[in-house]
Structures are given as structure tokens and as C-alpha cells.
Amino acid sequence: MKYASLLLASVAICLSLSGCSKDPISMEESLDIAELSQDADTYKNEFALAIQDLSTKDGCQAEVMREGGGFSRVTGDSFYFLYCGKPINTSSRWYYDPANGKLSQDKSELRG
């Protein structure tokens, strides 16, 4: 019991430090999610790399990205969006431009 408490405390400290992050999902799983995306035939590998990157961010979950159907094209723009966490709202929405590999929660950063 004492060891378990010490382990939990260590994990909590690690998660609170900026240098600690969760491991990315596997490339196989990120490719599966990318396959669900709009324009996957063109950008599947780029989407998979972005999905792996997102999977390391706090609040992002592979199952949410899968359930959401991967990346969808933003109407009238050349970039895409994806929800990666619950609740599915603007705080869990990420934008991605496969042309330059830029990933942001602010789509104005992708317009250039």
C-alpha cells in the first residue's frame, strides 16, 4: 500500500511537470484513424503523423478522433479540422494544414 501511494505520487508529479507527456498512439492506429479522414487518399500519411502528435497532447484521445471520422476539410479553406477530446467543442478542436504540416487550435494561424 505504501509503495502504491508513492508510485501514484510520483506519477502525479511527473504529469504536472512540463517535460512529461504521454506516449503517442501507434503508427498503425494513427493510420487507421487517418484512413477515416476526408481526402485520406491524398493525405493519409500526413494525417497519421498529425494524429500521432495530437495523441500526446492533454485531453486528446484516440477513440474520440476515431469516432469523429478523422480529419474533415474546413469549408472554403485548404486545411482540415479534427476533434480529439471530450466534450467535443472548440477546446478540443485542432486544425491541420497538410501542405506545411502545421497543427494549431487557432485556424487563423493557418491562413496565410
Write the layout of secondary structure elements.
Layout: H1 2-16, H2 27-35, H3 40-54, H4 62-67, E1 72-73, E2 80-83, E3 93-97, E4 102-104
Antiparallel strand pairs: 1-2, 2-3, 3-4
Signal peptide: 1-21
Protein name: Lipoprotein
Keywords: Signal
Write up this protein.
The chain is α+β, with helices and mostly antiparallel strands. Helix content is 40%, strand content 12%. The protein contains 4 helices and 4 strands; from the N terminus they run ααααββββ. The protein has helices spanning 2-16, 27-35, 40-54, 62-67, and strands spanning 72-73, 80-83, 93-97, 102-104. The N and C termini lie far apart (56 Å). Residues 1-21 form the signal peptide.
The coarse silhouette is: globular
User: pLDDT average, as an integer?
Assistant: 84
Strand content: 5-15%
**Number of E strands:** 4
Main sheet attributes: strand count, strand direction, barrel closure? 4 strands, antiparallel
Backbone CA Rg:
16 Å
Helix tally equals: 4
Protein name: Lipoprotein
Keywords: Signal
Signal peptide: 1-21
Keywords:
40% helix; alpha+beta; four-stranded antiparallel β-sheet; 112 residues
In short:
Keywords: Signal. This protein has 112 residues and is an alpha+beta fold.
